[in-house]
Design goal:
Blueprint lengths: L19 E6 L2 E6 L9 E4 L4 E4 L2 H4 L9 E6 L2 E6 L10 E4 L4 E4 L4
């Protein structure tokens, strides 16, 4: 009689949360929570939601845009600078706010 281990992780039988990874053990499994530093650049870990969220570099003052001549445009995981008054289009997932002359996230609408 030979007992074989069932890999609960491979068979998706684990109950690990989305911020954790499943590690198979003999006869069981362990959920390993991803550390906060595992968020990619441009994202921050929100412990209340246990997920990585985009950092709005423009709102946080983390951009290097010239405040006098450029607008900071937040994008998913990053940002870019555009010359004021020249904006003609926004990145995918954003729309132009013509009154404020900036791109806004469509999800925030």
């Amino acid at each position: 009689l030979v007992c074989l281990d069932i890999d609960e992780c491979q068979l998706k039988l684990d109950n690990c949360e989305s911020d954790s990874s499943c590690q198979n053990n003999i006869g069981s499994f362990t959920c390993i929570r991803a550390p906060m530093e595992d968020c990619p650049p441009g994202y921050i870990f929100k412990s209340s939601e246990r997920v990585c969220h985009d950092i709005n570099e423009c709102e946080e003052g983390l951009d290097n845009c010239d405040q006098n001549t450029q607008l900071c445009i937040n994008t998913e995981g990053s940002f870019h600078c555009e010359i004021k008054g020249v904006m003609t289009q926004c990145p995918a997932g954003y729309k132009i706010n013509k009154e404020q002359k900036k791109c806004e996230d469509l999800q925030d609408s």
